[in-house]
Write a structure and sequence with these properties.
Blueprint lengths: L3 E4 L3 H12 L4 E3 L6 E5 L3 H11 L8 E3 L6 H4 E2 L3 H10 L4 E7 L5 H4 L4 E5 L4 H10 L3 E2 L14 H8 L5 E4 L10 E4 L6 E4 L5 H8 L3 E2 L1 H5 L22 E6 L2 H11 L4 E5 L1 H8 L4 E4 L6 H18 L3 E5 L8 H10 L4 E3 L4 E7 L5 H10 L3 E4 H11 L1 H10 L4 E2 L2 E2 L1 H10 L1 H25 L4 E5 L3 H4 L7 E6 L2 H12 L3 H9 L4 H7 L2 E4 L4 H15 L2
Helix pairs in contact: 1-6, 14-23, 15-18, 16-18, 17-18, 20-21
The structure holds threonylcarbamoyladenylate (TXA) and magnesium ion.
C-alpha cells in the first residue's frame, strides 16, 4: 500500500480522508497532542485495522474522539455533572475522560471494558475531519507500539509507511505529549496518565483530584493497573536511559560527573555547550524553565537519539512537579521508572508581582517548618552591611550616592523609570544576592527551603529550585493592594505594575501557579494544600 501525506489545509483532502474513514479505512490525523491513527469507532472491522497497523496489544483500549459535546451522550452513559464541568473548561483540548460506555462503541475499541475514554481534540484539522466523517473516531497515537508517539507527519510515515493509505498533515503538534487521561467514575477524579491538563487544574474546577500511584512510580509487583496502557513499556529508545531528577543545577552537576565520551546527554539549553565538551553527543529539551517546549520536543528528541544510536543516554529531567508531570511521566516510563535523585533538599522558588501573596505563602510555609530566604530582605541586609556591594552600585549609579552610602528611594526611582538602568542594577545586585542565598541554602537545617525571589527567572535562581511557584493576581486587585499597603497613589502603583511581568510571563515559566483572587481564606487553603504536598 502506498502511504500518501496530504495537507490538512485543503478541503478536498479532508473530504477524501473522511470518505476513506466511512469506508472503514484507517487514516492518520493531527491533533494538538500527538498524531492519531483514526478509524470509525462504530466499526469493528475498521478498528481491528488500527491494532494491526500499530502492532498494539489486544487488551489496550483506544480513545474515542468527538467534535461536538452532543456526541458525548451517544458514546457514554451515566455521565456525571463533573464530566460536563471538565468538558466545559478543557474541551476542545488535551483531556480524555474515562466514562461508562454506551452500546454504540464497538467492543474492539474498549477491548471488552465497560468504560470508554473520550476526548474532543483542539486541532482544527481533527475537528474538521470528525465533522466531515460524521462519526466519532477511535484513535490511539499513530506510532508503532512501543515507539515514541509521533508529533509530525514525517514521524507517522516512519512508523506507518505501507500500512495505511494516508496521513493528513497538520504541522508539528503544539502540545507534544498525549492527553491527560482521567477516570471520572469515582467520587474524586483520578489521573491515569498525566498530560497538559494537570491535577491542579482539574482540582481547581472540581475541588479535588488525585493521580494514580502507578502513573507516578510505575506498577508495583503484582499491582493491577487501572488503565491497561500502564502495563506496557513505552517510548523506550534503544539506548539505556539514566534519568536524573532534581533541580537543573543539581542534575547538571551529576551529568558532568557521570556522562562521558561514549554517552549521549539530553539536557537543557543552558548546559549544552559545556556538556558538549565531555559527552559524545548532546541533545536538548529547551531552556530549563520552559515546560511547554520540553513537552513539544520530547518525542522528536527520543526519535533523534534512537537514530543517532547512542548506547547510553543521561537525561536531565525537568522538575518533576506541576506542569512538568506529563513530560516527566513519559521520561520515567522510557527508563522503566529507574531514576537517580540529585540533591537532598526541596528548594521551592516562589515569585510573582508585589502584592500577589508571596508573603502569605512564605508565612504558611514557615509554619510547615520550611526555612524562608527572602531575596529583597537579603538585598537590604547586604546594602546595609556589604561595603563591596555599595561600592559596585555607587560606581554605576553615581547620582544615587548619599553621604551614608546609597539613597534607596533615589535608586528605585531611577530604575523604575528605565528598563536598561534596571537591568544594570539587577546584574550587579543579583550576583551578590545569589551568592548569599546559595550560602544560606546550603547551610539551612530544614529539608525544605523557600526562596522568595521577585526576579526568580531573571536572576537564574530558578535553576537551583526543585519546584517553582508563581503567585498570580488580577491587575485591579494588585493595584488596590499596593496603594493600600505601600501608601502610594494609583498612578505610581500603575507605573510599578507596568515595570513588572504579567501573568503570561509566570504561566510560561512556573511549574505551579497559585491564584490569589482576593479571597484570603481561599488563598490560605490553596497554600496549605501546596505545603502539605511539597514540604519535606
Ligand atoms: O492525546 C491523546 O490522547 C492521543 C491523541 C491521538 O488523541 N491518543 C493517545 O491514545 O494517546 P493511546 O491509545 O496512545 O493512549 C490511550 C491511553 C492508553 O494508555 C489506554 O490504556 C488508556 O488511554 N485508556 C483508553 N481507554 C481506557 C479506559 N476505558 N480505561 C482506562 N484507560 C483507558
Ligand atoms: Mg500511545
Amino acid at each position: 500500500m502506498d502511504t500518501r501525506i496530504l495537507s490538512g489545509e485543503l478541503k478536498e483532502n479532508i473530504t477524501y480522508a473522511a470518505e476513506l474513514l466511512r469506508r472503514g479505512e484507517v487514516v492518520a490525523m493531527p491533533t494538538e497532542t500527538v498524531y492519531g491513527l483514526a478509524a470509525d469507532a462504530g466499526s469493528e472491522a475498521a478498528v481491528v485495522k488500527i491494532f494491526a497497523a500499530k502492532g498494539r496489544p489486544q487488551d489496550n483500549p483506544l480513545i474515542v474522539h468527538i467534535a461536538d459535546i452532543r456526541q458525548l451522550a451517544d458514546i457514554c452513559e451515566d455521565i456525571p455533572p463533573q464530566a460536563y464541568a471538565l468538558a466545559e473548561r478543557f474541551w476542545p483540548g488535551p483531556l480524555t475522560m474515562v466514562l461508562k460506555k454506551s452500546g454504540s462503541v464497538c467492543g474492539a475499541v474498549t477491548c471488552g471494558l465497560d468504560t470508554v475514554g473520550v476526548r474532543m481534540p483542539a486541532h482544527d484539522v481533527a475537528a474538521r475531519l470528525i465533522r466531515a466523517c460524521g462519526r466519532p473516531l477511535a484513535a490511539p497515537s499513530a506510532n508503532s507500539s512501543g515507539r515514541p508517539s509521533p508529533t509530525t507527519a514525517a514521524h507517522v510515515l516512519e512508523d506507518m509507511a505501507g500500512k495505511i493509505p494516508c496521513i493528513i498533515d497538520g504541522g508539528a503538534c503544539s502540545v507534544g505529549v498525549e492527553s491527560t487521561v482521567v477516570d471520572m467514575r469515582g467520587e474524586t477524579p483520578v489521573i491515569l496518565r498525566p498530560g497538559a491538563v494537570t491535577e491542579e487544574m482539574i482540582a481547581a474546577v472540581l475541588g479535588g483530584a488525585a493521580t494514580d500511584g502507578a502513573a507516578e512510580h510505575g506498577l508495583q509487583n503484582g499491582e493491577q493497573p487501572r488503565s491497561p496502557g500502564m502495563k506496557y513499556r513505552h517510548y523506550a529508545p534503544r539506548a539505556e536511559l539514566t534519568l536524573l531528577e532534581g533541580s537543573p543545577e543539581a542534575t547538571a552537576e551529576k551529568m558532568r560527573a557521570i556522562c562521558g565520551e561514549y554517552d549521549a546527554a539530553l539536557c537543557f539549553d543552558e548546559y549544552a555547550e559545556e556538556l558538549a565538551k565531555s559527552c559524545g553527543a548532546v541533545f536538548t529539551l529547551g531552556e530549563s524553565f520552559d515546560h511547554r517546549e520540553h513537552a513539544r520536543r520530547l518525542f522528536a528528541v527520543l526519535r533523534d537519539i534512537d537514530a543517532h544510536g547512542a548506547e547510553r543516554v543521561c537525561v536531565q529531567s525537568p522538575r518533576i512537579y506541576g506542569r512538568n508531570a506529563a513530560t516527566v511521566n513519559r521520561l520515567r516510563r522510557a527508563c522503566g521508572f529507574k531514576t537517580v535523585r540529585c540533591g537532598e533538599k526541596q528548594i521551592i522558588g516562589v515569585t510573582g508581582r508585589s502584592g500577589s501573596g508571596k508573603s502569605e505563602f512564605c508565612r504558611e510555609l514557615r509554619a510547615w517548618g520550611a526555612e524562608v530566604l527572602d531575596a529583597d530582605g537579603i538585598y537590604k541586609e547586604l546594602l546595609e552591611d556589604s561595603a563591596e556591594l555599595n561600592a559596585a552600585i555607587a560606581a554605576r549609579f553615581p547620582s544615587a550616592r548619599s553621604t551614608s552610602g546609597i539613597d534607596r528611594v533615589k535608586l528605585a526611582e531611577i530604575v523604575f523609570a528605565d528598563g536598561a538602568e534596571r537591568a544594570d542594577l539587577n546584574a550587579i545586585t543579583h550576583a551578590f544576592v545569589i551568592r548569599e542565598m546559595k550560602r544560606r541554602m546550603a547551610a539551612a537545617e530544614s529539608g525544605t527551603v523557600v526562596l522568595d525571589v521577585p526576579l526568580l527567572f531573571e536572576s537564574g535562581l530558578d535553576r537551583v529550585c526543585t519546584v517553582t511557584v508563581g503567585m498570580i493576581c488580577p491587575d485591579e486587585l494588585l493595584l488596590r493592594r499596593i496603594t493600600e499597603r505601600d501608601g502610594i497613589d494609583e498612578a505610581r502603583a500603575r507605573a510599578r505594575l507596568a515595570a513588572q511581568n504579567g501573568t503570561e510571563y509566570y504561566d510560561r515559566r512556573c511549574d505551579i501557579l497559585l491564584e490569589n483572587s482576593g479571597d484570603i481564606a481561599a488563598l490560605k487553603k490553596k497554600i496549605k494544600a501546596f505545603a502539605a504536598k511539597y514540604t519535606m
